[in-house]
Amino acid sequence: MSRPELSGDDQDRDKRSAWEIARRADVIALDVVGTIIDTAEPFPVTYARVARRFGVEADAEQVAARFPAAMRSIWGDGSSETDEDSERERWQQVVRAVLPDVGERFEDVFDELWVHFSSATAWTWFPDARALVERLIGEQRCWGLASNFDGRLHLWTKTQSLARAASFVRTSADLGVLKRDPLFYERLAGTARWQASRNDRRAESEQVRMVMIGDQPANDYEPAIAAGWDAICLCRTEAAWEAAAEAGRPRIRTLAELFEPSIG
């Protein structure tokens, strides 16, 4: 699909808005999956491959077709409270929904998938994310990771030299609430303010500008704004770019646009 035709002024305005937000931020929080990393192979392929290894008939295209509805149902409904056990239970529901023929091999299939997605080999960095994080580290900015994940993110982080340099890593399981709830960001703000005070020796009570950057508005933009954060939409698809424009959200196509000195 070709990109919508935008004037130079339109492009510059989008970039300048995001750039100014990032420039003035004391704390930058990055979403993880879809923002800084992606699966090393398409996740439906992984699900189907693991299932077949245990003798379960599975097709990657069918897994992909079932996945969106499963995610909406399991993460979009009900209470936003969560913890490590709840996150594991949610993923068990996902596996049952997308692999309905798993039967008595469920535990084997689920356990292998669970471990796989905590490993370094399961994920790959987006090139623009790697470059951004290297720049944040070089500029000694206060930054961290904020994800709708569980303890497996901490296991993955330990394998990544760049991620280990983060000022903080917080998951929904750590904070006890899903990202779609502004309470996630209210709780994260305590960590962010403390880290900012360590970074430049200011008192925690001083005004701290915090920005969330991610690719899912329902998790990374709307609740962050509601909690008093700034937020920027990362639009890796045309549909996301157009939706952000329609909603009037600060938007970027790549993370490289956040720190382009030529803008403005």
Cα-atom radius of gyration:
19 Å
| Integer count of domains | 2
Number of helices: 12
CATH class of the largest domain equals Alpha Beta
Mean pLDDT: 90
Q: Unreliable segments (pLDDT under 50, ≥5 consecutive)?
A: 1-9
Biggest β-sheet, characterized? 6 strands, parallel
Which helices and strands occur, and which strands form pairs?
Elements (H helix, E strand, L loop, with lengths): L7 H17 L2 E4 L6 E3 L3 H11 L6 H17 L7 H15 L7 H11 L6 E3 L1 H12 L3 E6 L3 H8 L2 H4 L3 E4 H4 L6 H19 L9 E5 L2 H10 L3 E5 L3 H10 L3 E2 L12
Helix pairs in contact: 2-3, 3-4, 10-11
Question: What do these coordinates show?
Answer:
The chain has 264 residues and is an alpha/beta fold. It folds into two domains: 8-36 and 126-259, 3-Layer(aba) Sandwich (Rossmann fold), CATH 3.40.50; 41-120, DNA polymerase, domain 1, CATH 1.10.150. It is built from twelve helices and eight strands. It has helices at residues 8-24, 43-53, 60-76, 84-98, 106-116, 127-138, 151-158, 161-164, 172-175, 182-200, 217-226, 238-247; strands spanning 27-30, 37-39, 123-125, 142-147, 168-171, 210-214, 230-234, 251-252. The strands form two sheets. The chain has a six-stranded parallel beta sheet with strand order 5-4-1-6-7-8, with helices on both faces. Helix 12 links the parallel strand 7 (230-234) and strand 8 (251-252). Helix 10 crosses helix 11 (217-226). The longest helix is centred in the C-terminal third of the chain and has 19 residues, at 182-200.
